[in-house]
Design a protein that fits this description.
The protein is mostly helical. Among the domains are: 216 residues, no CATH class; 73 residues, no CATH class. The protein is 74% helix and 0% strand. It is globular, with a radius of gyration of 26 Å.
Length: 632
């Protein structure tokens, strides 16, 4: 429901104040904290931020006007009360023994957050967060692995509202410190026309080649997804142009929609922005965000290369051509009109990687982009400024509600002590088998990704599952990325496949057929997480030579797998029978996959595994040659 009039201005005002609070906390206004007299401790900043955004959730996701306004006012008053008493809260340790009024206020904030979560994220996440947040009250009565330390409702409410382990836990702190700036940068790129620029650039570079429109969709949707952090939003924006272009080039409706869904899904995994989950991951791992972005780069590129190769193979098999040159923009004109988008991206990456100032980097890049935009012909007027702030407010409200709701789960596990015991239970169930733990992790991540947001599913599993996988000897960075990848897969996997269904609505194709097509096209993404979690070099955990060798092996394997799936091997051609395709695919799988000796206890080392793969590939090529000569 679109907000109008005064309610819309409330959202704009909330977004503006939240942005000012975040920038002031980082001392971006001339190195001075202007609000230092009012915000003296970090807890006050958190309550101020929550007070700006959480009440607006009841206006952004309305039910009944007077109830919504009442909930908004109550929530704002509660946050204001805690903001005013923040120093007493810390000095007198209210989280362990709050005054009666603060206890009732804590209970009200807990209920308000759950109701905002129900409205913004749906019943599934509401039910999960509600169940876990209540768990400390009846933890002693829970069966087996879920049994933990009990607490009264008063202790639970105060812990949720006033500790830094629950609502203001790691997800919220990542939001307050890092996410807001990158949300601002991504939305600025979109609203200044960055999406159109990247789409035009992709058309200029790739529109003419075999299967060009599909390759344009891969590049443009990948870049847009990195900015927006939302699969469905990405599909509904870039898909409006890429899907009809693919259909004009001769691709079926369900295939065009499947390509767009896969590309948009991969975009959220592509640095430098990657959506809000990557910043939460950096906070969990206690490392700078740029290290997460660098580690995620090779797996994301492998996925896009696999998708690119599949599209090329399909186009080669079907004899599809690119678009006519008269339909396409030129590279020179595109860069001349949108050079400042490249400049803003370059500034962001320079500050992230070289200067390592990830907290302030997006704000500086946003400032440069806005300045250059206002000097161009595309400069904003006041109505566009209001629209931009409204969009920013809506996204910040959604994020603060979801991350606060996930924080309730984190807080409950912390209060009951279940975080550590569940890890031990998982290790016991798996019997020390790394392979079984990985399969359990993949299945759990996928199932949770169906019912929860990606960030919520990731945070839950980062607490429960990641420590068990790390204890089994797997590197922490690869484990956290593994969980993130599998949580994303529900967007292209039936029966849910939200990304594919959104694309199907544009292409006017059958949703389920589109979902299966997207799953087949994106099949490489089901394989890549197992590769990098078993070969840490692919997430830059090793020397340069080991990274290079791992990348080469993965590329060869993905090339062979793409050819086997499509029945057409790029750079070689078609003519593969069913059994040569099986040999080709299995050989590529064995070459790309790191040694399974320590996972399945096969006793077969990496050399012999790769040798077996090479023999299968050679047999496939020999079989193809035999058939083409008319001997088969």
């Amino acid at each position: 429901m679109a907000l109008t009039g005064l309610l819309r201005l409330f959202v704009v005002a909330g977004a503006t104040v939240a942005l000012v609070l975040a920038m002031d906390a980082l001392r971006l206004f001339g190195g001075i904290q202007f609000l230092g007299e009012w915000i003296r401790i970090e807890t006050q900043y958190y309550f101020a931020l929550l007070g700006c955004l959480l009440p607006l959730a009841f206006l952004t996701y309305p039910r009944q006007k007077f109830i919504d306004l009442g909930m908004a006012l109550i929530t704002f008053s509660i946050c204001g009360y805690f903001f005013w008493n923040a120093e007493a809260l810390v000095d007198e340790a209210w989280e362990f023994g709050a005054p009666p009024l603060a206890t009732w206020m804590s209970l009200a904030l807990w209920i308000a957050l759950l109701e905002a979560l129900r409205r913004s994220a749906g019943w599934t996440l509401f039910a999960i967060a509600g169940f876990f947040s209540l768990m400390p009250i009846f933890a002693e009565q829970m069966p087996g692995p879920l049994s933990g330390l009990a607490a009264t409702w008063q202790e639970t409410a105060v812990y949720h509202a006033l500790s830094i382990e629950s609502i203001f836990g790691l997800p919220f702190r990542a939001f307050a410190g890092l996410v807001i700036g990158f949300v601002l940068f991504g939305l600025t790129l979109q609203h200044t026309g960055g999406g159109r620029f990247f789409l035009n650039l992709a058309f200029a570079l790739l529109g003419r080649v075999r299967g060009g429109p599909a390759k344009v969709a891969i590049v443009s949707s990948g870049l847009m997804g990195s900015m927006s952090g939302s699969v469905v939003t990405n599909v509904l924006t870039t898909g409006q142009l890429t899907i009809p272009a693919m259909q004009r080039a001769g691709m079926s409706a369900h295939y065009a929609a499947g390509v767009e869904a896969c590309a948009s899904t991969g975009g959220v995994l592509l640095p430098p922005i990657m959506g809000s989950t990557a910043f939460v991951m950096a906070t969990f791992l206690e490392i700078p965000y740029y290290q997460v972005a660098l580690a995620a780069a090779i797996p994301a590129l492998l996925y896009f290369i696999g998708l690119f190769l599949q599209v090329d193979a399909h186009a080669g098999l079907q004899g599809l051509h690119g678009l006519d040159e008269s339909e396409l923009p030129t590279v020179r004109d595109t860069l001349r009109e949108g050079w400042y988008y490249v400049t803003a991206f370059a500034v962001l990456i320079f500050m992230l990687v070289y200067l390592q100032r990830e907290a302030i980097a997006p704000y500086i890049a946003t400032g440069i982009l806005l300045l250059l935009n206002q000097l161009s012909r595309e400069r904003w007027n006041w109505s566009e400024v209001i629209e931009f702030l409204h969009a920013t407010g809506k996204l910040l409200i959604e994020l603060v509600v979801v991350l606060g709701g996930v924080g309730l789960i984190v807080g409950a596990l912390s209060l009951t002590g279940l975080g550590g015991t569940l890890v031990n239970d998982l290790l016991y169930i798996a019997g020390g088998s790394v392979g079984l733990l990985l399969l359990m992790g993949a299945a759990t991540s996928f199932v949770l990704g169906i019912g929860m947001t990606v960030t919520a599913a990731y945070v839950f599993l980062a607490i429960i599952l990641a420590p068990a996988l790390i204890a089994a000897g797997l590197p922490s960075m690869a484990v956290h990325l593994f969980i993130l990848y599998w949580a994303m897969l529900s967007f292209i996997t039936p029966p849910v496949a939200l990304g594919a269904f959104a694309a199907a609505s544009i292409a006017k194709s059958p949703p389920l057929l589109t979902g299966w097509t997207a799953m087949r096209l994106g099949s490489i993404i089901y394989f890549i997480p197992f590769v990098f979690v078993l070969e840490p070099s692919l997430v830059l955990q090793g020397d340069a030579l080991s990274v290079l060798l791992a990348v080469v092996e993965a590329l060869i394997g993905i090339w062979l797998l793409a050819g086997a799936i499509q029945g057409f091997l790029p750079l070689v051609g078609g003519g593969w029978s069913w059994w040569t395709r099986w040999f080709l695919g299995l050989g590529g799988f064995l070459i790309a996959l790191p040694s399974l000796e320590g996972v399945l206890e096969t006793g077969v080392g990496n050399f012999y595994q790769a040798l077996a793969g090479a023999v299968l590939v050679a047999s496939a090529f020999g079989g193809r040659l035999w058939i083409r000569r008319g001997l088969g």
